[in-house]
Amino acid sequence: MSNKIVLGDNQYGKAEVRVVKVTRDTDRHQIEDLNVTSQLRGDFEAAHLQGDNAHVVATDTQKNTIYAFARAGVGSPEAFLLRLSEHFTSGFDWVTGGRWEAESYTWDRIQSHGSEHDHSFVRNGQEVRTAVVVRDGNTTHLISGLKDLTVLKTTQSGFVGYPRDKYTTLPETTDRILATDVSARWRYSTGLDHTATDFNKSYEDIKALLLEGFTENYSHALQQTLFDMGKKVLEAHGEVDEIKFSMPNKHHFLVDLSPFGLDNPNEVFFAADRPYGLIEATVQRENSGTAPAAWNGIAGFC
Ligand SMILES: O=c1[nH]c(=O)c2[nH]c(=O)[nH]c2[nH]1
Predict the structure, then answer these.
(1) EC annotation (predicted)?
(2) Which of 116, 176, 213, 228 is the most exposed place for a label (fewest CB within 10 A)?
(3) Annotated binding site
């Protein structure tokens, strides 16, 4: 064993740059609202070992670059992150890669007097859209996603046939509420040319497929529904190699109303917030690579 202490993996940058871009070339304004993180990887040894900052593109500069790039429009979180990754890796020799991440928040136009307002918006609380670009030399990985997409179905879900031991008390049911907050991340095939990709359309399409996948079949378990959802996305989108899910099983327990002389035919539930089942899985194409480097740093998925 050597006693020499050396620098291992490292990256740095500005985290959570909140940027709101208003496009106001007509009276009908548009709004793009993002939370962007930029992290550079490359040769930063001198900074860590000798205090020599000659290679350290300041995190403040990274933040300013995000704002400056937003001036020309965001377009989509994915396209914006790809532009940032290209800028930093082509602009500084020693920056060989990095990780750029965004959350984006949707604003809907306020309906006012029966029509959509030109410049007043209401935050759409449905879900948060996510994107990650990981670049290593000439390899660029792109992962899109969403989180906090809360869905529930009031029937067509059950849970039976599981093993019973001395600790098992859960009654079997063929009719229960199924509810979850969908977190999903899908990885585009590495090496695709994305110059013509309409990421906003792709996002809306994949979100719709996820929602359809949740509704379509009788659910024997959240695990099966998860797989149904992922399969639909991969079948319809050949450019997506794999999709990962993390979904809490938000239990709804039937309340015993018999002390009050009432029946309860699956109508009144106690919505428990914890503990919750936590169901996680990857749905992927058989024999396709899984690109672990792309997923590094994305917490909460398996
Ligand atoms: O859909 C479910 N999957 C499980 O793994 C599980 N376990 C449990 O207690 N209830 C459920 N429901």
Answers:
(1) 1.7.3.3
(2) 116
(3) 59-60, 159, 176, 223, 249
Q: Give the architecture-level CATH label for domain 1-137.
A: Roll (3.10)
Host H or E run for residue 269: strand 269-271
3-state SS assignment for residue 80: helix
Q: CB 156: neighbour CB atoms within 10 A?
A: 15
Q: Is 221 in the pocket of ligand 1 (CB under 6 A)?
A: yes
Domains 1-137 and 150-302 share a fold: yes
Integer Cα distance of 221 and 17 in angstroms: 39
pLDDT, tens digit (0-9, with 9 covering 90-100), for 74-101: 999 999 999 999 999 999 999 999 999 9
Residue 13, Ramachandran bin (φ over 0: left; ψ between -120 and 50: alpha; else beta): left
pLDDT band at 1 (very low <50, low <70, confident <90, very high): confident
- Confidence check on the interface: ipTM exceeds 0.90, yes or no: yes
| Closest to 193 measured CA to CA, from 234, 239, 235, 237 | 239
Q: Is the CB of 159 under 6 A from ligand 1?
A: yes
> Domain 150-302 carries which CATH code?
3.10.270.10
Coil, strand or helix at 54:
coil
Question: What is the maximum alpha-carbon separation in the chain?
Answer: 78
Q: Domain residues of the chain, as ranges?
A: 1-137, 150-302
